[in-house]
Amino acid sequence: MTIVGNGTWKNGLRFYNNVNEQIKTLNIGSHIRMIDISGSSNLFALDVINCYSEIPPNLSEWAPNLFSSSCYDGELHVPAGTAEAYSAADFWKNFNNIIPDLTDKITLNRTSASVSVGSSVSLWANVLPEGGNVVWSTNDASVATVDANGTVTATGDGECDIFATLACNTAVYASCHINVNCNETILSDDGYLIYQIIDPEKHEVALTGYNETVMETGDYWGTQFPPDKPVIIPSTITKNGEEEYTVTEIADNALQGLGGFSNPERYTNFFPSIILPETVRRIGKYALQTNAEAPGTIVALPHSLESIDDYCFLYGAGDGRFIIYENVNNIGKGVFRGFLGYIIFLNHDFEVNSEMCDINSISHLEFLGENLSIAANTFTNADIYVLEFGLYPCSIASNAFSGNCNINIVVSHSAVPFDIPDDAFTSNIYQNAVLRVPKSSIDSYRNAPGWRNFINIVELTDGDVNVDGTVTASDVTSLFSNLLNNEQENMMNYDQNNDGQVTASDITKIYEIILK
């Protein structure tokens, strides 16, 4: 018998008359906080209780009568790390065999959300053990629906709960409370940006767009329009000059480069740079887009970012630098389509696949995080100037770089080559690309699976920040840009002095190499 606790009495469990007294196993869901009894029942045949709640549920005055004394000699299975709490809790301490072996667990990226009718919000589930299938459901489809991917769409006024349930164990689930039509908006002090309150209790807002009427006047942040300086989104705003709200999201469709204007030709240089605050956790679907003809938008991503949803930045990133920091655990479809510059993956335990990349041409692609993997056919037909791997091993699937994929330079900073399949790269790449590796490790790469297929294997050169085989003024420029942007996480080529930081002394080191 399984009780998940997602009925009308959301966090409680009540037994009525005529409960099946022959039940031998009882599964109690992770959200159950109270057990009650109405009438007379007794589970005298109960041998096993699996209680998935990390907090021992309380029992009402008469609820202990539900369990016979023989139950206490059975098995009480509880989540790992909670045995001490159950051993000290009323009623539960009577069990003689408390076994902390339940590892199944689901957590969601958010536990509450406020949305407007017709809009949507993306939920995703972290499942332990990994690989478990999740079934999504709603307890009121008239308020909000949810699809198989966790996308919640508001359908009507009211409140409801969205549940992610483990398919193989329905006692394990997590929920998100949805409040529909909490759509109060706040205008920025300068009147240009519009925010929507998404969590009144936590005082969180989403940036939903710009005030088009004010934009059309041409006076934009005190500069010309289109602006010729970075647009910095603040981390907090105030409501009526009193209540402070934190900006945690860029809403779906927000700040599209050419969207919504009556004269698109006028805005071909819209937003030369947008800098997001270190409070933003999500960038919504289709946000920060421009159209294919525009030069694009350079965006500095915050360390706080967790989710980059479908098709945001589409043709809107230009030739800038995208650093994907370690908190990012979701990247949607088509995010990097039309991107021409740098993409640096610093996040961990993450698979990069073709749906998120969809790249035709890019200047620099770096995989520096721990336990990163590249799925099959991720970079089919892509034109990549530099492909760079850090000190951590990266799992590369067969045909990850396939079709007519072209790579000029492949760099690996690990002195010990990690294993790759022979067909990770095409024969064209093996024959024509230059593989640059740490000093004194050429022989190791020439004998390593996969890597030994490269015809041209050379040592990395001191001062060669751009890893193009030469040390020139362009390397100084790249290092200086890194220094200005304080990109200390990406020091693979920039820390010329090997002192663990990027400073002006590293620029001096390159100048010395050039002068020699």
Question: Describe it for me?
Answer:
By secondary structure, this protein is mainly beta. Among the domains are: 2-102, no CATH class; 105-180, Immunoglobulin-like (Sandwich); 184-294 and 307-313, Leucine-rich repeat, LRR (right-handed beta-alpha superhelix) (Alpha-Beta Horseshoe), CATH 3.80.10. Strands 18, 19, 20, 22, 23, 25, 27 and 29 form an 8-stranded mixed beta sheet that branches. Strands 28-30-32-34-36-37-38 form a 7-stranded parallel beta sheet. Helix 6 (473-485) packs antiparallel against helix 7 (504-515). It is globular.
Q: Using only CA atoms, what is the Rg?
A: 28 Å
Helix content: under 10%
In CATH, what is the class of the domain at 184-294 and 307-313? Alpha Beta
Question: Please, what is the average pLDDT?
Answer: 77
**Shape field:** globular
Task: Give the arrangement of secondary structure elements.
Blueprint: E1 2-3, E2 12-15, E3 25-28, E4 34-37, E5 48-51, E6 58-59, E7 75-79, H1 83-88, E8 97-102, E9 105-108, E10 112-115, E11 120-122, E12 125-128, E13 134-138, E14 144-146, E15 151-154, E16 158-166, E17 169-180, E18 185-187, E19 193-199, E20 204-210, H2 212-215, E21 231-232, E22 236-239, E23 243-250, E24 273-275, E25 282-283, E26 298-300, E27 307-308, E28 321-324, E29 330-331, E30 342-345, E31 350-352, H3 354-357, E32 361-367, E33 372-374, E34 383-389, E35 394-396, E36 406-412, H4 427-432, E37 434-437, H5 442-446, E38 456-459, H6 473-485, H7 504-515
Parallel strand pairs: 1-3, 2-4, 3-5, 4-6, 5-7, 7-8, 10-17, 20-23, 21-24, 23-25, 24-26, 25-27, 27-29, 28-30, 30-32, 31-33, 32-34, 33-35, 34-36, 36-37, 37-38
Antiparallel strand pairs: 9-12, 11-15, 13-16, 14-15, 16-17, 18-19, 19-20, 22-23
Helix pairs in contact: 6-7
